[in-house]
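Consider the tokenized backbone below.
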């Protein structure tokens, strides 16, 4: 099990990050939840995990668009055996109309945050003699779609950085990998539906089956529990020689 390990999961007060936190805690890890807000309900999420799993769970506020706050999150966590870089946002627009501030925010939150947290966490992993970096990239870290230039650039960047971290830690008991989900039904995906409906002039159901799951041959969304399970696997001894690679959880998307 992962008891005695501390996992820091960025962007984990909803969606995939929260699902991963739950599965890591069920596997015995102490978890640090994070987002940029500091509400009672954020801290309540950590309390629920602690009560149900008997592990320690904390919520730490830090804005992943700010490099110094990314590094401070790891410092405040105190130890970081498992780092899950999951925080992410999306914006959909043609590149010639893409708002510059959205481009900058997506590059900062979806990509640069992983640089800062990894830089802060690796010395802790080395001191502990064990570590796992799990970057939540995307099928869009391996392939492209129109209107998502910033997201796709950031996710391809994360996949590239993952390979570099793996090479820099190759002879240490540390691995770095990226998980590439296809479509998972979470608030982030939910938020894309109205814009996509407008863009394609379609109703909700049609957008889900024909546009969103168009490239997901299974025609089913992946679940946050499945992504949590994949993360737990990457933290297991069986995965000790898996490093510098991607694992797709995409219902066959990237096989097309
Ligand atoms: P979500 O919106 O439910 O979760 C995003 C998380 O990031 C939230 O907890 C949010 O609070 C946090 N966040 C946003 N901005 C932040 C900031 N500045 N500082 C700290 N935290 C911040 O969406 P999700 O679908 O769970 O997405 C999680 C990750 O999975 C993202 O990196 C996303 O790109 C990736 N992903 C999602 C899908 C999908 O279909 N949902 C597919 C592939 C990849």
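A designed sequence for it:
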């Amino acid at each position: 099990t992962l008891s005695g390990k501390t996992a820091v999961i960025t962007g984990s007060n909803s969606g995939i990050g929260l699902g991963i936190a739950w599965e890591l805690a069920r596997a015995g890890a102490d978890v640090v939840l994070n987002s940029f807000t500091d509400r009672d309900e954020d801290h309540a999420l950590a309390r629920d995990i602690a009560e149900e799993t008997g592990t320690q769970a904390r919520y730490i506020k830090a804005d992943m668009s700010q490099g110094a706050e990314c590094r401070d999150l790891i410092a405040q966590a105190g130890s970081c055996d498992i780092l899950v870089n999951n925080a992410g946002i999306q914006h959909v627009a043609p590149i010639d109309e893409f708002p510059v501030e959205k481009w900058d925010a997506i590059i900062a939150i979806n990509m640069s945050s992983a640089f800062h947290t990894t830089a802060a966490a690796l010395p802790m992993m080395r001191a502990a003699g064990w570590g796992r970096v799990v970057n939540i990239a995307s099928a869009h870290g391996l392939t492209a779609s129109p209107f998502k230039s910033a997201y796709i650039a950031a996710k391809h960047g994360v996949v590239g950085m993952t390979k570099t971290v793996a090479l820099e830690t190759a002879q240490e008991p540390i691995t770095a990998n990226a998980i590439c989900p296809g479509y998972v039904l979470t608030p982030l995906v939910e938020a894309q539906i109205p814009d996509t409906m407008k863009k394609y002039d379609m109703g909700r159901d049609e957008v889900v089956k024909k546009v969103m799951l168009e490239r997901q041959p299974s025609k089913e969304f992946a679940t946050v529990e499945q992504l949590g399970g994949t993360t737990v696997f990457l933290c297991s001894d069986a995965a000790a020689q898996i490093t510098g690679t991607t694992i797709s959880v995409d219902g066959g998307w990237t096989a097309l």
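The two ends are 36 Å apart (CA to CA).
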